[in-house]
Amino acid sequence: MRVTDPSVLDDVVARLPTGWRPRPRALVDHLVSFVVGGDSGAVRRFHLLYANAHRLVRTTERHEALAVLENHLTQAVAEMAPQRLFVHAGVVGWNGQAILVPGASHAGKSTLVAALLAAGATYYSDEYAVLDRQGRVHAFPRPLQLRDACEVATSVEPEQLGGRRGVRPLPVGLVAVARYDEGARWRPQRLTPGRALLELLSNTIVARSHPSAAMATLKRVVSRASSFKGRRGEAGETAAWLLEAVG
Amino acid sequence: MSRPLKDGTGRPRQRREGLVVQELPEETLVYDLERHKAHCLEAVAAAVWEACDGHRTFEQIAARAAKRIGRQVPEEAVWLALRRLDRARLMEAPVAAPLGGRFTSRRDWLKKAALFGGVSVISITAPTAAQAATCVSQTTCAGLQNRFCNGAPCCTTGPNPAPPGTTCQKVGNQNNCSCAP
What we know:
By secondary structure, chain A is of the alpha+beta class. Chain A is about 30% helix and about 30% strand. Chain A folds into two domains: about 1-80, no CATH class; about 85-245, 3-Layer(aba) Sandwich (Rossmann fold), CATH 3.40.50. Chain A contains six helices and 17 strands. Chain A has a five-stranded mixed beta barrel, surrounded by four helices. Chain A has a four-stranded mixed β-sheet with strand order 1-2-5-6, with helices on one face. In chain A, helix 4 crosses helix 5 (about 210-225). By secondary structure, chain B is α+β, with helices and mostly antiparallel strands. Chain B folds into two domains: about 20-125; about 130-180, no CATH class. The interface between A and B is large, with 47 and 41 residues.
């Protein structure tokens, strides 16, 4: 990661992936460059962000460039992690097992995770389920991104919702594909292991690039976990059901 | 690709090239590396597919499948499963229903499918890394050069929502990417 203006470094460091550490070697696998713009006299320069030689964004808004940077770094880690499988999902822990809520952006994962935390579950992630080869899920501890009525995202620490952060990797006890649909009632159908695997695969970052390894890991998950799919309305009702189901 | 089987005497052969197979207790997962599609074969379909070695007749396939799943598999169910496996491009050659057979319409096939159960082949298209990741706002998408449109889903909510079902892609000769269907 390199920048053209050191004054932006604090903002950049705040957006580095969890567990990052400096490396003294000049040789890197992936180079991200932030050309800092802004107003200088009569000239208004763009903020430019590059991944290797590819331009990721050109914007006059610094916060937007930083948001793209954060998303890009997270995705780069998800794609390049050699020992972990990243599945787009919310994750909480309950009674020594993990509940996975896979789904696309804006499917209501973070809201459901927040409701689960309020009900006493332990926080693991609202963005990615990080799975090892045994099918256990590890914490991806970034703050929750909760959207308000105007759909503006706000970072919320799990402790603010009454939750605790999980540390130990957990086996997956429940997979719940729960898409938000206003006014819907949570009446899920049980998924067979094969269908549950398809649901997880459709949210897996390296589904195309490493299908064999992804399917092997997901098989371990669905062989052990119960899986359900349905439309949910109010998050609290669904959260209570999920905690009851995982036991 | 061998000659299509157009009568009831063919000996179907499962496709083996370019597939990743993962077996579950009652289902089989198949990933097609050429088309980037993942298929979940239900119990009967999985048993039929496994039995299609290019040497067995339909009767032998039905017997082999019955042995594997522990219940009777009528020949009609074999045909239904083969038709669905064929549609999913999991067979070496296209498989057609027997001439003058009892299933002449799509409705007949569906009726039989409902009766037999377990013959479904459920398919998805595997997402690209960008599609499986968080969506991008329209503003972010518009800031990308057209060479680097990443195909990520565009956010349908937020301050500048994109139309539902759009992805960040190159449109016409524009220099930058756009959220488009």
